[in-house]
Each structure stands twice: as structure tokens, then as C-alpha cells.
Design brief:
About 35% of the residues lie in helices and about 35% in strands. The protein has about 100 residues and is α+β, with helices and mostly antiparallel strands. It comes from Streptomyces flavotricini.
Length: about 100
């Protein structure tokens, strides 16, 4: 299992950003290997978001982001936010935490 972490700093319209994010989330959640996700918003800076998405493995995530449909959806994000993406593996977790 891997976790995709993406920090997004919005520099465009937040409502448009949220609409694009929702379309991307709907697409990704329908892909093979997708387990679940969580979206967080920074309390001190309302323009900073974290997206956490859990995947069965890195290959499943890679297949999803290489698709033409994903590429068509994600192009709308560029004018609205700066992403800082990365895939992470669990090193340790407390009981009851993924």
C-alpha cells in the first residue's frame, strides 16, 4: 500500500479549484487499485490543501495518472493551484491508524 500526498496552494479562484478537485477525485476513485482518500485544508491559510489518497501500490497510481482522461482533467488545475505531489510508504503507524 502507498499513500499519494499532494500539497496544493491555490492562487486562482477557490470555488473553481474545488470543482476541478472534485472531478479529479471522482475519476481517481473509480480507478483500479484506489482504496480511499482524505482532503485537508490548512486552518491558518485557507488557500493550502492536502490531498491524501491510498492506493494498493505505486503501479496502480501510475496507471491512473498516465491515462488520457486524467491528463485532460488535470490540465484545468494548473491555472488554479501549484501542486507538490509525492508517493509515500508507511514506515510505522500507531494502532488503529492506517
Amino acid at each position: 500500500m502507498v499513500t499519494f500526498v499532494n500539497k496544493l496552494t491555490v492562487h486562482g479562484d477557490i470555488d473553481r479549484f474545488l470543482a476541478v478537485k472534485d472531478r479529479l477525485t471522482a475519476y481517481m476513485s473509480s480507478q483500479p487499485g484506489y482504496i480511499g482518500h482524505e482532503a485537508l485544508r490548512h486552518l491558518g491559510d485557507q488557500r493550502v490543501f492536502l490531498e491524501l489518497a491510498v492506493w494498493e501500490d505505486a503501479a496502480a497510481h501510475a496507471n491512473a495518472v498516465r491515462s488520457e482522461q486524467f491528463q485532460a482533467l488535470v490540465k484545468d488545475l494548473g491555472p488554479l493551484a501549484t501542486p507538490e505531489p509525492g508517493l509515500y510508504e508507511t514506515v510505522e503507524a500507531a494502532p488503529g491508524v492506517r
